[in-house]
Amino acid sequence: xxxxxxxxxxxxxxxxxxxxxxxxxxxxxxxxxxxxxxxxxxxxxxxxxxxxxxxxxxxxxxxxxxxxxxxxxxxxxxxxxxxxxxxxxxxxxxxxxxxxxxxxxxxxxxxxxxxxxxxxxxxxxxxxxxxxxxxxxxxxxxxxxxxxxxxxxxxxxxxxxxxxxxxxxxxxxxxxxxxxxxxxxxxxxxxxxxxxxxxxxxxxxxxxxxxxxxxxxxxxxxxxxxxxxxxxx
Length: 233
Hints:
Elements: E1 3-7, H1 11-23, E2 27-31, H2 34-43, E3 48-52, H3 60-69, E4 78-82, H4 87-95, E5 100-103, H5 108-123, E6 132-135, E7 138-141, E8 146-149, E9 152-154, H6 158-168, H7 177-185, H8 194-207, E10 217-220, E11 224-227
Parallel strand pairs: 1-2, 1-3, 3-4, 4-5
Antiparallel strand pairs: 6-7, 7-8, 8-9, 10-11
């Protein structure tokens, strides 16, 4: 049974979300502030976090930053809850490593659809491919969902990892934002094309020596993103 931590200071909302998740077969726990959420995450094994950005004690962006910088937690997918119309919060959250977002007010049905879609995405594992994919100094471990550059471990969110792996497995092919959305995020939920740009920028900041002149993930203006077919040197 998948365990989900719901982090929001609105107790009625937490109870509503928890009720609907339990109806779908999930196990849930609740936290109403940032420090308590991190304490629960470190002491218990959770498969996903639903995280509100406006929290007492420590805001959601800071909680997200800690999650992504902690080796014990960085693999956990995170869905942000953001206020309606606050695009800047969504962009910042995605840049910091959130995997998806839902805008308040939302229907429990939409949130559960996103939870299921995200958990499905991270559970898909290649069966016949080699465990580690190498491109120059870049090493991608398919089983551990980990990335190393020059023997330095890189912290990527689950969605960032899947996006990098998708491009790496298809070196030489150029993919538009819409194609990457369909392949990595799936068609179960709506995500803006700009989300791809945010995730690509964050990946580059992690794996590139000079993100403005990328060695690995290239951009073909007007076409999309790609990793060159020949060996990166």
